[in-house]
Amino acid sequence: MANEGLPFGAPPTQPEEKKHAGLFGGKHDEAAGVSVSDLSMQLNNLSRRLRILEERYTSLRKKTQDTDQTILNVNKQLTSELKATHSELVDFRREFYDLRDKTKLIVKELKECAKTDEVKVLENYINLWEPVNFVTKAMVEKIVDDRIEEKLGQRPLLREG
Q1: Number of helices followed by number of strands (H, E) in the chain
Q2: Residue 97: CA atoms inside 13 Å, Cβ hemisphere, count?
Q3: 137 class by beta-carbon count within 10 Å (0-12 exposed, 13-18 middle, 19+ buried)
């Protein structure tokens, strides 16, 4: 077989007449030279385009990784802020309930306090009685003792003798 020594994918050759034209078999067919040149240009073009696509893919992959990292950081920060906000909300709720209970206690105590008209009635009675002019027990005893001494000092003592 004539095709046994050819590389894989090479077109089979037909037995041709041998041309004796030079040391290396003579001139090559110009059509074959153009196709090799075309193939080389196409290969270079495809290689360049592939390299550009790979660079774009690498760039997009890096941007995607950066975006993913940013999203993770933002998510972590939002989660932290949400926990802090929830904690503050729980504290505010607790303080609100404490204030509500204290307000209820104040209202209850105010209901038990005397009203203005009751205080006015007491004020009128106090002004009527004038407790500032009242005497104390000690003052009464002193007045009585003074009067007794005064009376005893004027009369002669009957028990002499």
Answers
A1: 3, 0
A2: 5
A3: exposed
| Contact assessment for residue 44 and residue 35, using Cβ atoms and an 8 Å cutoff | no
Q: Write the CA distances from 98 to 94, 101, 103, integer angstroms.
A: 6, 5, 9
Q: What is the DSSP string of 72-113?
A: HHHHHHHHHHHHHHHHHHHHHHHHHHHHHHHHHHHHHHHHHS
Dihedral sign computed on CA atoms, order 73, 76, 79, 85: negative
Q: What pLDDT was estimated at residue 13?
A: 59
Phi-psi region of 26 (alpha: psi -120 to 50; beta: other; left: phi over 0): left
Amino acid identity at 119: V
Residues contacting 97, CB < 8 A, separation 6+ = none
pLDDT tens for each residue of 49-60: 999 999 999 999
Residue holding tokens 């709720």?
Answer: 93
Q: So what's the pLDDT on residue 161?
A: 45
What pLDDT is attached to residue 156?
Answer: 56
Mark the ranges of the chain whose per-residue pLDDT is less than 50: 1, 161
The secondary element (H helix, E strand) that includes residue 160 is none
